[in-house]
Amino acid sequence: KRMNDDGLKAELETLKVEHRDLDDAIFVLSRQPVVDQLQIARLKKKKLALKERIIRIEDQLLPDIIA
């Protein structure tokens, strides 16, 4: 279990970095003189998928404690 948690934590950090990078890319693209809405939509969709994976991994690492 310990190794599994370490692997999940490493993947989580990688996904968070990728999520931030996509955020930056979307920001830059949206400031261009000619805005490529299709490219921005694709990046936002990918960013959402990453966010969902991040949430799933966080749930695995910190399961709900029922009192």
**N- and C-termini, Cα separation:** 23 Å
Percentage of residues in strands: under 5%
Mean pLDDT: 91
Shape summary: elongated
Give the strand tally: 0
The low-confidence runs, each spanning 5 or more residues with pLDDT under 50, are: none
The description of the largest β-sheet is:
none
Estimate the helix proportion, in percent. over 70%
Question: Structural class of the secondary elements?
Answer: mainly alpha
Name the helix and strand elements from N-terminus to C-terminus, one letter apiece: HH
Number of helices: 2
Radius of gyration: 16 Å
What does this structure look like?
There is one protein chain. The chain has 67 residues and is an all-alpha fold. The chain contains 2 helices and no strands. Helix 1 runs antiparallel to helix 2. The model has no long low-confidence stretch (mean pLDDT 91).
